[in-house]
Each structure stands twice: as C-alpha cells, then as structure tokens.
Amino acid sequence: MGKRGWSIGIDHTQGWGMDKVLLDYGSGGRASHRFVADLFFKYLGNDILARMDDAAVLSLTGPVAMSTDSFVVDPIFFPGGDIGSLAVHGTVNDVAMMGARPLYLTCGFILEEGLPMDDLAKIVASMGQAARDAGVRIVAGDTKVVPRGAADKIFINTTGVGEIMVDPAPSGHRAAVGDVVIVSGSMGDHGLAILSTREGLSFEAPVVSDSASLAGIVGKLLAAVPGVHVLRDPTRGGLATTLNEIAGQSDVGIELTQADIPIHPAVAGGCAVLGLDPLYLANEGKFLCIVPEAKAQAALATITADPLGAGAKVIGRVVSDHPGKVALVTPLGGKRLLGMLEGEQLPRIC
C-alpha cells in the first residue's frame, strides 16, 4: 500500500462535483484519503484493509502459493467482464492451479488522468464482487495517477496468496507417460471476445469472454480425485502454447485429438474469417487437468458436475514419443506438430 494504506488521485462525482480522475489528488493527502474511503473501501473493504497500516498482517499455515500478474486489457469493458473482474480471476486462477485455496489479494492501480469516474467505479465494484465470489479478500493496495498519455486509461496489478491443499502439489513438471489430458470447456472464447469488441466486429452468434474464478471447481476436483498431476489455465498463447510448456517442463510428448477439442461454433467461425487459430487464443475461465488414466473418468465426472466445467472433455494423452512437443491428430488420422506461439497473435487480451 501507499502511506497509511492507500494513496490515490481521483475526483469523485459524489460530493466533489467532478467526474474525471485528476492528477492533483495523487499526493496522499486529505483529499486522497476521502476518495479512497468513498470508492475503494466502499467496494473492497474488509477488516484487514480497514486497519490502514503500511502492510497487511496475514495468517497462513503450511506451504503457500503466490502469483502476480498485470492487466492491460483493451477494451477495459468487454462481453462477459471488465478489467477489474479479470484482474481478480486471472490471479486467483493462477494460485488455484498450484493446488492452493486462494485467500488474499493485493492490487495496484495505474490510472490515467481524465479517466471517467463512472468507469472507475464500475471497475472497482466489479473487482470487489469478483473477489467475494472467489472467496478472497483484498488486503493491500496502491493507486498512482499519471498524466494524460502516460498510460491508457487504467492498468491493474494483482498479487495472490493461497494455502496449498495437496501434497505433492500439481505442477507442470509432473506429467507422466500414460496420463490423460482433460480440458474444462471450449477454447478461445476470451481472445475472440476481446478482439471482436476492440475492432467492432460482429458474428452470427455473440462471443462472450469466459472470465471466471476457477478456485471453487478446482477445490472440488482436488478433494474428489487425489493425485492430479498437472493443473494449468491456458491464458496467453492458448491451449497449444500451454501444453508445449508442460511438455517441455516434464520432458514428455503430448498428443491431442483435434475432433475432441471443444470450440464454440461462433469462435470457430470467427477464427476462420479472421485467419486465427482458436488453439492459440487466450482463455480466462478454463483449465487443463492432466491425471493418471485410472483417475481420468472420476476427474471428468467431477469437473462436468460443476457449471464451469459442463463442457469438459478428454482431448489427449501424454506419450513417450517426441518429448517436449505437442502433436495434433487430425480427423483424417494424420499428425501435425503444434509449436509454441511465435510473437503476439493478439495483443492486450489480459
């Protein structure tokens, strides 16, 4: 946090008669404290944050998982979410992928002078609701205001901490030959939703981001199916890049069956028109689960029982061939390698 817990430079429509973020209020003085109370504490407040100390004192037992991420998505509002809820979901999910129960978040805001106050209030409210839904508390924060043109509206950084629930914890290093690869739902929804909104594109069916907290469904999975080897959320770089990372970490090959990979028709159609591959598009509410074959059906049943995993499917296997690489088996029975994403297929998707 900034001095005395939080520093901010904004002007609020309630009682201040202005509707834009102003540079003047970034000094951490009396006006800044009023703004923090009116906005951030209103939506994010809890007993730890309310202490207004220079750091939060937390209670944790045993090993913990910790992750940090920065969010610069453009546009800041999109079908299925906004930068505030996305900032919570993204970090909560990263912590959950380590077999941990997310407990605490910190958040840092970089605000551009002139950001509409209504937009900021919607984002902070959305962030607070996402945190409550995920069962985490935002316990520390900081806000900086930069001059017009020095940033693009709003950037958010979040750091998450959670208690690891299983031993050994899932890891990209634990995929083993004979394991089964499960994906919790359709691929590419978030990436195409961001692109279509940014560029003003429309398709026959609406494309909505899958942004969601996966902490609940992962907790159920770990409780019901001991011995999950790998959990990973395929965000930037999508399914193909994420599986390449796992194959490299574990020094194994992975083979996918193309016909089994779930992709919404609207996403498939949109990607065909735009020349994009949905296997490389970002997801923000889906996860990969790699488990021993003997536990695959139990894992699939647990995942599909939750609404967030209703579209889950077995999509491939871990093999000894081509270690460090991912192969896609086509509907005609041929194979092609799925490499790592080169460059930036779609910038600022999270």
UniProtKB/TrEMBL annotation:
InterPro entries: HypE, PurM-like_C_dom, PurM-like_C_sf, PurM-like_N, PurM-like_N_sf. Residues 53-164 form the PurM-like N-terminal domain. CDD domains: HypE (cd02197). One of its GO terms (biological process) is protein maturation. SUPFAM superfamilies: PurM C-terminal domain-like, PurM N-terminal domain-like. Coiled coil: none annotated. Pfam families: AIRS (PF00586), AIRS_C (PF02769). Residues 177-326 form the PurM-like C-terminal domain. It comes from the Bacteria. NCBIfam families: hypE. PANTHER family: CARBAMOYL DEHYDRATASE HYPE, HYDROGENASE ISOENZYMES FORMATION PROTEIN HYPE. Belongs to the HypE family. This is Hydrogenase formation protein HypE. It comes from Solidesulfovibrio magneticus (strain ATCC 700980 / DSM 13731 / RS-1) (Desulfovibrio magneticus). The lineage of its organism: Bacteria, Pseudomonadati, Thermodesulfobacteriota, Desulfovibrionia, Desulfovibrionales. The gene is hypE.
